[in-house]
């Protein structure tokens, strides 16, 4: 669980804490290239936490193979773990997903794409925004 509030950290503090690539995605709303992230095809059982602050966000039980180029989930660990923002960048209307604990950019959520999931949602999340904590077998 998160032990300190990181929403008040300065840009310089974030730059010291994160790699340049992590900073670009998590703090500047960037996107990693498709099919390059370490968790795109991972099937390890565990919990996915925010790489910036450590808040637990998703479980492997909600991860599915969407073949879109990024890790996909059909829902968060709990609704209070994430927050949503309207994103109209790149000439499209999307829903941005951020970590509720530190306000870091995670990715986007899409609905109605026809995936056979309990929510009909695809949480398209950047691998670099996450850290997988495997559970014991």
Q: What would your notes on this structure say?
A:
The chain is mainly β and 137 residues long. It has one domain (11-134): Beta Complex (Metal Binding Protein, Guanine Nucleotide Exchange Factor, Chain A). The protein contains two helices and nine strands; from the N terminus they run ααβββββββββ. It has helices at 11-17, 20-28; strands at 46-50, 56-59, 63-64, 72-73, 82-87, 94-99, 105-111, 121-125, 130-134. A hairpin with a 6-residue loop joins strand 5 (82-87) and strand 6 (94-99). The longest helix is centred in the first third of the chain and has 9 residues, at 20-28.
Query: Major sheet: size, sense and barrel closure?
Result: 6 strands, antiparallel
Total domains, how many?
1
Mean pLDDT over the residues? 91
Please estimate the helix content. 10-25%
What is the level-2 CATH architecture name?
Beta Complex
Q: Compute the number of strand runs.
A: 9
Q: Class in CATH? A: Mainly Beta
Strand order of the largest sheet: 3-4-8-7-6-5
- Strand percentage: 25-35%
User: What is the CATH superfamily label?
Assistant: Peptide methionine sulfoxide reductase
Which regions contain 5 or more consecutive residues with pLDDT less than 50?
none
Shape: globular
Which structural class do the helices and strands define?
mainly beta
